[in-house]
From TrEMBL:
Domain Carbohydrate kinase FGGY N-terminal residues, every copy: 16-264
Gene3D superfamilies reported in the protein's UniProt record: 3.30.420.40
Record carries keyword Transcription: no
Assigned keywords, A-Z: Carbohydrate metabolism, Kinase, Transferase, Xylose metabolism
Ranges where the Carbohydrate kinase FGGY C-terminal domain occurs: 281-479
Protein name as it appears in the record: FGGY-family carbohydrate kinase
InterPro entries referenced in this protein's UniProt entry, alphabetically: ATPase_NBD, FGGY_C, FGGY_Carb_Kinase, FGGY_N
Source organism phylogeny: Bacteria, Bacillati, Actinomycetota, Actinomycetes, Micrococcales
Pfam families: FGGY_C, FGGY_N
Length: 539
């Protein structure tokens, strides 16, 4: 597409816009709706969660202002690249961090501060639900947050009229519809893949729980959950109020169709073309998680694994870790500051500092020289931690070098994830291809190589790795537009034939020395979790 053709497509609305609210950045991505692999413009806005009254949260004011800022940045990028200003789009999609708890009364007022996926205060509820359902219900799931509020007899529960995820909330702001994509909904309450909606039997099990009947006798969970929609289904249109919220300048016109809002796990699967059985992906950011599309049911419930779905509703095993690359980034920031005070030419260039330190890690010993790095800023259920305390631990005979230190930090990003993935390996879950995306993979050949060693599987990274979920939800918006125009392809076929057919992919095969070295590292990592728990208790 020429620059002139791109400008014409933008003016005529032959585009798809994706907006994703990540943990540290709100990103907007505009693609050519007829060729979604072509990114036309991007925008972004930095934001950060808050830890208030022992709750990880974001304010809804920050949600609104952040949306506006990211959209304005996208519009500015469109003007810089193409010399036009968009007034409409072919379709829009919203994605955000999965899980958590946004509770509203009948007038739409927020009843308690937004409780994000990062909170680990739902242990009693998750344990009771897991036993009652015969499935692992993780601490971060929305139903666990709701049930914990019921168990604690929180005063807001009698006033509860609906609860949803962050993507569902933003979608409601922009369209007025209370719906969710099936992938995001599967992190609220278990989904029956045969029906494509909430499991009817388990809804009844929940309403029959003695604890629910004792503490909230009038509550019926089915009445509170959003409607579930599969990828490609129409999910409403941009209202006049939504247009004014997203673009206060008044240039954006209402009436634009929306695809179902999705969670970051689902958009990550789309962004890596990992929606078919025996495929999987790893998404690394503030959190890190792996999604593996299943070809058969697991033989047992595992507390390390939860069952969700693709945006099309197919069953997925998810290994979710609350802590990803934040601690690694903090250490890189420290070294960047050191570069600044020494007058180094890389000062102020974070990408250059990441690149230099990651390259140094390649020279480290395969087992990181005896060093172990724990990245636990928040609680980590798979590791048995209610709270986090980042640690670097080594024995007196370990080799403390910069190369080993950086390799340990990179390995630490994957440590808890690897514990969960070992469970799937023991279940005999087969993976033909594993894709990775997220900013950590922008430095070519390092984080990707170490992940291949950690998983003992080939890991692919594509050109869109750093765009991530914002591009993934833009693709889902383009898929809606294609389906509305009569395209009969399912989501997997659409991705294969319309999006990824010509995509460049770099594949890292597992190196035998890395596999053995990471296995030795993981043995020390697992043994040292007692030190992590002691640090939480003592500090």
């Amino acid at each position: 597409m020429t620059d002139t053709a791109a400008a014409e497509a933008i003016r005529e609305g032959r585009t798809a816009l994706g907006i994703e609210l990540g943990s540290t950045r709100i990103k907007a991505c505009l693609v050519d709706a007829d060729d979604p692999a072509r990114v036309l413009a991007v925008g972004g806005h930095e934001w950060e969660n808050r830890y208030e009254d022992r709750v990880w949260t974001y304010s809804l004011d920050d949600v609104r202002t952040g949306l506006q800022a990211a959209y304005a940045d996208l519009v500015a990028d469109v003007a810089r690249r193409h010399g036009v200003s968009p007034t409409t789009f072919g379709a829009i999609g919203v994605s955000a961090m999965m899980h958590g708890y946004l509770a509203f009364d009948a007038s739409g007022e927020l009843l308690v501060p937004f409780r994000t996926w990062r909170n680990t205060s739902t242990g009693a509820a998750a344990a009771e639900l897991s036993e009652a359902f015969g499935l692992n219900i993780p601490l971060r799931w929305s139903i666990a947050h709701l049930h914990q509020a019921v168990l604690d007899a929180e005063p807001h529960v009698p006033h509860l009229a609906s609860f949803t995820t962050l993507a569902g909330y933003v979608h409601r702001l922009l369209t007025g519809r209370d719906v969710l994509g099936v992938g995001d909904a599967s992190g609220m309450f278990p989904i029956d893949s045969a029906t494509g909606t909430y499991d009817e039997r388990l809804l009844g099990v929940y309403d029959g729980l003695p604890s629910r009947q004792a503490h909230a006798p009038a509550l019926r969970v089915a009445d509170l959950l959003p409607e579930v929609l599969p990828a490609g289904a129409p999910a409403g249109e941009l209202t006049a109020e939504g247009a004014a919220l997203l673009d206060p300048t008044g240039a954006l016109q209402p009436g634009i169709p929306f695809c179902p809002p999705e969670g970051d796990a689902g958009t990550g699967m789309v962004a890596t073309n990992a929606v078919a059985p025996r495929t999987g992906n790893v998404s690394a950011g503030t959190s890190i998680f792996a999604m593996v599309v299943l070809e058969r049911a697991l033989t047992a419930a595992h507390e390390e694994v939860d069952l969700v779905t693709t945006p099309a509703g197919d069953p997925v095993a998810m290994v979710h870790c609350n802590n990803g690359a934040s601690e690694l980034a903090a250490w890189v920031g420290l070294f960047e500051r050191f570069a600044a005070v020494t007058g180094s030419p890389v000062a102020g260039d974070a990408d250059a500092v990441f690149g230099a330190l990651f390259a140094e890690a390649l020279g480290g010993e395969p087992d990181a020289g005896g060093l172990v790095a724990y990245n636990h800023l928040a609680g980590e259920p798979i590791a048995g931690l209610d709270e986090g305390r980042p640690l670097v631990v080594r024995t007196p005979d370990s080799r403390l070098t910069l190369a080993n230190f950086m390799r340990a930090q990179l390995y630490g990003v994957y440590g808890t994830l690897a514990l969960g993935m070992r469970v799937l390996a023991d279940e005999g879950v087969a993976i033909d291809r594993m894709f990775a995306h997220g900013g950590i993979f922008r430095t070519a050949g390092v984080a990707q190589r170490f992940l291949a060693g950690a998983l003992d599987a080939p890991v692919a990274v594509g050109e869109t790795a750093s765009e991530g979920g914002a591009w993934g939800i833009a693709v889902l918006a383009a898929f809606l537009r294609a389906r509305s125009a009569g395209d009969v392809l399912d989501l997997g076929g659409y991705l294969d034939e319309r999006v990824f057919a010509g995509a460049a992919v770099e594949v890292a095969e597992p190196d035998a020395a890395d596999v053995a070295g990471f296995a030795a590292y993981l043995d020390r990592y697992r043994a040292g979790l007692a030190a992590e728990a002691a640090a939480v208790a003592a500090m």
